[in-house]
Amino acid sequence: MLRGFYTAASGMIAQQRQQEALSNNIANANTPGYKSDQTALRAFPEILLQQTGSENIPTTRGLNLPIQNPIGTLNTGVYVHETIPNYVQGDIRETGITTDLALVNGTIPDETGSLFFTVQNDAGEERYTRNGNFTVDGQGFLVSNQGYYVLDQSGNPIQTNGMEFTVLPDGMLQTEGGNIQLGIAYTENANALVKEGNGLFSGEAAEIPAGTTFQIQQGALERSNVDTLQSMTQIMEAYRMFETNQRVLKAYDESMGKAVSEIGRLG
């Protein structure tokens, strides 16, 4: 019966973590470039139950042989194995703001590959993002809405000297001081990236393979790929599953109470 406690409790914890991920998705439904999280549930390893005993062999010395009879397997519940971002591109929304840039995927030969803008975090490390909600700071550098420097192809901050600049579809940024190529990073396996928050990802970048095409659309933003209606439905499903495990846990608790109070008194 104690195993039933653990099974029901693990189900409640798994559904709670799933609700947290879905709630975070809905909270970021209007965040540009946000990639929704998907939780993967996994069962704990199964336990093989066997009945142990002994068999009396009718010999002159009374030999007893140990025996084991398989009963079956027991599963002890589920847990959230990992949270995987969904890298499907969101819809493109025009804003008319010159500093807003949308990275529009074209042809990517590798199904697991993905393209990102490159920025520099507070520690001076290179990070990747799909959020093109940029602006220009007081020193004339192109920065993200968190204040991170947007990097060029050589990994240097981009100096625009103002809001008046043009970005061509190939990522070439034209200013009065010259042309600068936006730093576009490519990763062969987006699922290997680590989601850090604020729309940033860390990991290893690779050379953009031949046949990869993309466009930079100025005055537009990539919207979040969160399906709000689907997320709300999944939250309700997770809540119902949480309630079901809660009722099972309550039933086990009542059974244990009877075993302690009533069966013990009869003895």
**Uncertain runs:** none
**Helix and strand composition category:** alpha+beta
Largest sheet: 4 strands, antiparallel
Helix content: 10-25%
Mean pLDDT: 87
The span between the termini is 20 Å
Could you give the count of β-strands?
Answer: 19
List the quaternary state of the chains: single chain
Number of helices: 2
Quote the beta fraction.
35-45%
Count of discrete domains? 2
Radius of gyration: 29 Å
SSE order in H/E notation? Answer: HEEEEEEEEEEEEEEEEEEEH
Shape, per Cα inertia axes: elongated
GO biological process, one term: bacterial-type flagellum-dependent swarming motility
Family: Belongs to the flagella basal body rod proteins family.
Pfam families: Flg_bb_rod, Flg_bbr_C, LlgE_F_G_D1
Domain Flagellar hook protein FlgE/F/G-like D1: 113-173
Could you characterize the architecture of this molecule?
This protein is of the alpha+beta class and 267 residues long. The protein folds into two domains: 2-83 and 227-266, no CATH class; 92-222, no CATH class. The protein is 24% helix and 35% strand. Strands 7, 8, 11 and 15 form a four-stranded antiparallel sheet that branches. Helix 1 packs antiparallel against helix 2 (228-266). The protein is elongated.
